[in-house]
Records
---
Amino acid sequence: MKLQKLLIFLFYLYFNAFTLTAQSSKSSQIDVLNYHVYLAPSFSKNYIEGNVSIKFSTSTQTEKVVFDSGDLIVTKLEGTHAIDFMQKGKKTIISLAQTDTNIHEIKLFYHGHPKKGLVFFDNAQKLYSVFFTSDWMICNDTPDDRATLKLDLLIPKEVVSVASGVLKDAVPVGNKISYSWHQDYETPTYTYGFAIGSFNKSADNYNGKPLKYFAEDYTSAEIEKIFQYTRDMMSFFEEKSGISFPQEEYSQVLMGHHYQEMSGFAILKKSYGQLVLQDSTETNLLSHELAHQWWGNLITCKNWNHFWLNEGFATFMSAAYNEYRFGPEKYQENIDSYLKVYDKIKSKGKDKSLVFKDWSNPSGDDRNLVYFKGAYVLHLLRKELGEVSFWKGIKYYAQTYCGQSVTTKDFQLAMEISSKKSLDSFFKKWVY
Ligand SMILES: [Zn+2]
């Protein structure tokens, strides 16, 4: 990769990483089973009004439960066992009546001006979500609580929505349309999301599963070309993980200025499409975001201290896909570029262990370490174990922890069991 292109690539990844700041990494007493969200955005005011029904269980009988609520203002609480609520900081605390059940259902009505979790565009009728889900829906916003989702979006009839799950209904309501998206598949809340806008489209399918491509300001022919390798990438990641693509469909949306994987779809910066059109081997960010459907969404870091298990993996997998599609030189080019970023951080004396003790206030270098040192260390592990043993271990890890939240210890153990080799000294040197 030429240096200029590399810098652009890094900037994109950095920008994506920059969206991450400290979310709570509490070990929760709550296990949410399902969210049903209703959201009505007001584009001119960067404002949303909504409500969320949360069905959850508690590990013990408890009088209080705490949810993440960003800057949202709660106006009303409903629920058979719900007594009262109070808001403190970015939390909403619910008082529950003493009952003999550990399963509860509450409904919260709220409104607010999300600052980080939703990206508005100066009065234009478009919008998308990025990462900070508790900015726009009240939830248990931690990567180790997975739940199913129903998301209802009330939006003007001139625009359409793309969201996590499958579209079950689109019903006209006056001059608006109410879209109803259902995800009958549990994922962590940070993967929930949606995009609203006016798009050109193209479509494909992979083993009968719809692949949908949306973009602003590109023709359908261009869109088709930009996303032409999606099926191929999907087949590659299925093979490496040993797990079929778990969602019912996959959508990619070119709009705005972020890169964000979400459950069943991804947002990619609008101008990235130009880069792909100019050079069809420029697929790193398409494959990076798709790789997250396995490494991130399906096998999730338990807390943000183990974030490299999401980002290091997706970054490594994009190089591995390039090797498969374009040859070993392309892979080596990517690995060299990752090492260059890592070396630069090291030369500044900012190297740290991949497992962060405290992810409450990461610097730009910290974030880059998670992506690029993370990917480089996976490359080194590949060298250490050899081709067959490494990929066997990667598959064993994915299949063992499919649908779960994991720590680095789980990954190490999976690779050790699979390879029958102690990796203590490798992990001590490169990871801890
Ligand atoms: Zn990523």
---
Amino acid sequence: MEQKAVSLVKVNKVYDSLLESLRLIDGLGGLSPDDQILIKPNIVSWDFELPFPPFGVVTTSALVEGLVRILAENGFNRITIGEGSLPNLSPKGQEVYRALGYDKLAERYGVKLVDFNEEEFVEVDYGDGFKLDIARHVLEADKIINVPVLKSHNQVKVSLGIKNLKGCLSKEAKQFCHGLGEEDLSLTFPRIIEKLPVALTVIDGIFTLEKGPGPTGKAYRKDLFIASRDPFAADLAGTVVMGYEPGEVDYLVYYARRHRYSLDLADYELRGEDPYRHRAYVDYDWEWTEDNTGPKGFARQGITGLAIRKYDSSLCTGCSVQYNPMLILMSSAFKGKPFPNVEIVTGKGQLASPGFDYSVLFGKCACHLNKDNPNIKNAVKIWGCPPDMERFVAKMAEIGIECNYREYIRFRHYLFNRYKKEEGYDLDYWTVK
Ligand code: SF4
């Protein structure tokens, strides 16, 4: 029964609350001190150049520190922390770990810090022709402790423990997971866990994130830990707390069907706080115009002559991270006059439509897909995987669209500064004292 028990604990002092979360589900019960333990936080991205608000985006170092301390106090001394952040952070993984204070955990507890992007990847055969390249350190772990964030996701609604394991894949395997049809994101990433020994999931809900998974979303204080020895049970409870019906989250439906799980939280043993008392909707979606010409905010600005097709789930993280800068840059180019009849398509499934004077193909995938598209009058190809934004600005200038990169920098400062006015947004959560 412990296996399907889920604890919800209100966070007061991180270490004490974590201890209580684990006590309620016998969280260390599936682990042996001899085990090689891998802790997998969520450090999807970071930034050393522009301000980066980690609230609701990156697992708090306070939680990771608490976990390491509890493990050490229980005789575990073979602990690794590993993550495979966005490729643009490679080879900066160790720098990111230093920024998060993990170097102190290495000094104090002998924790090994591994950047999966610098590791060897091993092909793992899942059967039915489904294969993924997984970091060697992940496969060598006896047990994995998964420490995701309680966040929404603009493509799959929620991003919790099962999704967090995508960070264990090679760049190519991550891209493969953002496929079309049978290879849709909600059908691929839930399979990663099938070959991984995940023994414990602790969802970091000190903050939760609306319109995630990146820092363009808005974070809120939530002060909750959700823990389970069963990865699905943890995700199910997290989903309910975020205000979604499990049946409307495709990956949960797929996983439940595949592994014969119930989607009803009442079928699991809940310990600690009542999840329904903490339930509050965390929106995942960026609103677009009905005719799919751009974000609603663009229509409100009075932008015409431009159609930016809404991202779909085939847009992988690399392009997703550039998507928002692209929007800000296009908005910066609007000076009250219509754009010169331009369409922008992205990802692996968007074909340029007829009737536009310029078709902007954003990223390698859109360029390949539209190679022979007869609808295109003038193709503006932004190659790259993901595309480079300086190149984007230069290519736009060639067709008379003057983007202002300073607007993007201003926007990044705004994203960071909006938390300064609010109580409880303390960057100390991402340090180790
Ligand atoms: S071009 Fe973009 S969508 Fe295509 S594989 Fe690269 S990052 Fe993913």
